[in-house]
């Protein structure tokens, strides 16, 4: 068994992704060998976390200097001499106002030499991925543990790559990946034999494979943990004070709050989320960041356009052309998320998102005012959900035109959807595989941080 394998996908999904990255246009441009190399690098980098942790500073509450100084004073958070939490050169605003910080920790870009132990705890793939980004193991994520495990035992933690481990098992011989060592915080009986599901930390990680900072509960209101491409989205949308803006698929609210902060909390940000138990998370984030311009509704955004010419309530559905700007951070297959060591999704599930994305896009265009801006984004790497959707949108809605993005620090759009070179240059695709194993320590910090991100896609439209 490989200690740290490439992402584990169903064979049909792997073949599908390979066909995407080795499509006719790509092969004609770079050749089969280079295209295959990029695809293999994609599979490798997806199972590893990004080398840098991006933290969005709440500059609407405190100056950047205050946030940086507080971060530097956190006990146990060692920052490399090179970065000092300094602002990358691609600052998303003027240097004194930039709201993105890259925490460059030593060992963050290499696997640590951690010795596996004989006592093993098995966790779900999602839990294992969280551990690689600095989290401890919470009890609900534990699937199997030694028969006589007691609080205080030192254990090795493994991630179940195929979802085949039986809950409550005492051992597991299936496909798994080692993510580090920790100390059990609960007895086995408290995890599996209690009357109610166990809560809290089940294993406190002391030797994770990746030394990655955890910002869970750290500097609330000052530093908001967010992937760099997700921060870029807010700036690309370009919200201005006094505008009315719609975030169509808002949970957990990171982008919603960023939009409100960029507007200086002046105007209205309407956040829609169809899953009720996610609504509280958006409200909690808004409250923590002291943002009052955000209004949250539990509503299906595909039905957010009202056919009633007389709208009496302030909530959804809304009359057509109700918003100055719309963010559609669409539900997607999530194949750009990192780390992701294994997915049990079928090809049918992977392909199921495009029809939903198109329905949401229809609603977004109708809700947007003439002259307004629509930003579409996903955290996946497929053509169907990204460039092909853009091609469909431009063909379906003659009123839409692609717009330049600021900042533009990712790569251009991917070949294969029939878009022109000019159109591809207006798109922004964060493609970590293009620089995987090439972003050495000799490169500037900003260059390394820009490239080693999750896989992400952004398109910006103007409604004429």
UniProtKB/TrEMBL annotation:
InterPro entries, sorted: MeTrfase_RsmB-F_NOP2_cat, MeTrfase_RsmB-F_NOP2_dom, PUA, PUA-like_sf, PUA_sf, RCMT, RsmB/NOL1/NOP2-like_CS, SAM-dependent_MTases_sf
Domain SAM-dependent MTase RsmB/NOP-type: residue ranges: 148-464
Molecular-function GO terms, alphabetical: RNA binding; RNA methyltransferase activity
UniProt keyword annotations, A-Z: Methyltransferase, RNA-binding, S-adenosyl-L-methionine, Transferase
Keyword set includes DNA-binding: no
Catalytic center residues: 379 (nucleophile)
One family name in Pfam for this protein: Methyltr_RsmB-F
Chain positions recorded as S-adenosyl-L-methionine binding sites: 249-255, 273, 329
Gene Ontology biological-process entries: RNA methylation
Coiled coil, from the record: none
Keyword RNA-binding among record annotations: yes
Assigned protein family: Belongs to the class I-like SAM-binding methyltransferase superfamily. RsmB/NOP family.
Full protein name: NOP2/Sun RNA methyltransferase 6
Species, as recorded: Sparus aurata
């Amino acid at each position: 068994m490989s200690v740290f394998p490439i992402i584990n996908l169903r064979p049909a999904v792997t073949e599908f992704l390979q066909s995407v990255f080795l499509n006719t246009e790509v092969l004609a441009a770079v050749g089969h060998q280079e295209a295959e190399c990029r695809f293999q690098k994609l599979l490798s980098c997806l199972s590893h976390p990004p080398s840098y942790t991006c933290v969005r500073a709440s500059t609407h509450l405190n100056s950047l200097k205050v946030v940086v100084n507080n971060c530097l004073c956190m006990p146990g958070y060692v920052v490399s001499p090179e970065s000092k939490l300094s602002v990358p050169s691609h600052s998303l605003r003027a240097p004194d106002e930039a709201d993105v910080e890259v925490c460059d920790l030593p060992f963050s870009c290499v696997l640590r030499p951690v010795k596996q132990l004989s006592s093993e705890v098995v966790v779900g793939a999602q839990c294992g991925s969280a551990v690689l980004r600095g989290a401890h193991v919470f009890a609900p994520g534990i699937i199997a543990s030694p028969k006589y495990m007691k609080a205080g035992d030192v254990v090795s933690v493994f991630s179940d790559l195929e979802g085949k481990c039986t809950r409550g098992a005492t051992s597991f011989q299936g496909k798994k990946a080692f993510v580090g060592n920790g100390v059990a915080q609960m007895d086995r009986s408290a995890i599996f034999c209690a009357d109610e599901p166990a809560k809290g930390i089940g294993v406190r990680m002391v030797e994770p494979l990746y030394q990655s900072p955890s910002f869970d509960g750290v500097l609330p209101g000052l530093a908001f943990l967010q992937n760099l491409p997700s921060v870029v989205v807010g700036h690309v949308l370009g919200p201005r004070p006094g505008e009315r803006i719609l975030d169509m698929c808002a949970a957990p609210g990171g982008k919603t709050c960023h939009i409100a902060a960029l507007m200086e909390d002046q105007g209205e940000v309407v956040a829609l989320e169809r899953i009720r138990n996610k609504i509280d998370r958006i409200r909690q984030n808004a409250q923590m960041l002291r943002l009052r311009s955000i209004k949250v509704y539990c509503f299906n955004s595909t039905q957010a356009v009202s056919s009633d010419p007389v709208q009496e309530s302030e909530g959804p559905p809304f009359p057509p052309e109700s918003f100055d700007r719309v963010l559609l951070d669409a539900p997607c297959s999530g194949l750009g998320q990192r780390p992701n060591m294994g997915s049990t999704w079928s090809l049918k599930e992977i392909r199921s998102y495009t029809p939903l994305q198109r329905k949401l896009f229809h609603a977004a265009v109708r809700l947007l005012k003439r002259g307004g801006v629509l930003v579409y984004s996903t955290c996946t790497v497929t053509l169907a959900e990204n460039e092909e959707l853009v091609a469909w949108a431009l063909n379906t809605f003659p009123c839409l035109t692609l717009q330049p993005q600021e900042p533009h620090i990712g790569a251009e759009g991917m070949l294969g959807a029939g878009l022109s070179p000019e159109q591809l240059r207006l798109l922004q695709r964060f493609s970590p595989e293009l620089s995987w194993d090439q972003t050495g320590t000799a490169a500037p910090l900003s260059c390394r941080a820009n490239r080693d991100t999750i896989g992400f896609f952004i398109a910006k439209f103007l409604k004429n």
